[in-house]
Write the structure tokens for this entry.
Amino acid sequence: MAVERTFSILKPDATRRNLTGKINAKLEESGLRIVAQRRVQLTRTQAEGFYAVHKARPFFNDLCAFMISGPVVLQVLEGENAVAKYRDVMGATNPANAAPGTIRKEFAESIEANSVHGSDSLDNAAQEIAYFFSQCEIVG
Ligand code: ADP
Ligand code: MG
């Protein structure tokens, strides 16, 4: 097992309902460490750039509108197998399919407003971290 870093976003539905502490507690309990964290209001351009891989999907415009509907918390998480571990802690994209105890099962409102983003591979994690954080903002 290797120590990895993954990229996380606490989405606008989570900040709106004041759930950032509860979600952070859950991911810290799993062994992940928050090694960078910044609360921001994303711009449309930033949201579209971040989700560019989904540009052709029917939900792209709604997703970008949702992601700029309120503040988000951008995070870098570190730990053993951090990428896969965080995907496990998050649960399935659609909260209806998420396993009990996962963040999305406990907190998500819908398939779109599903409280958290987490990178789906180590390569994407590196890319997504670099999109929002500079090296000196990450303190492991
Ligand atoms: P995940 O966040 O689990 O990696 P995807 O990368 O497939 O899921 O999708 C990115 C985000 O787009 C999801 O987290 C969710 O907010 C939104 N999304 C995905 N599928 C749908 C859908 N069918 N309808 C509306 N929004 C969706
Ligand atoms: Mg994804």
Summary: Residues 120 surround magnesium ion (ligand 2) (CB under 6 Å). The two ends are 18 Å apart (CA to CA). The chain has seven helices and four strands. The chain has a mean pLDDT of 98.
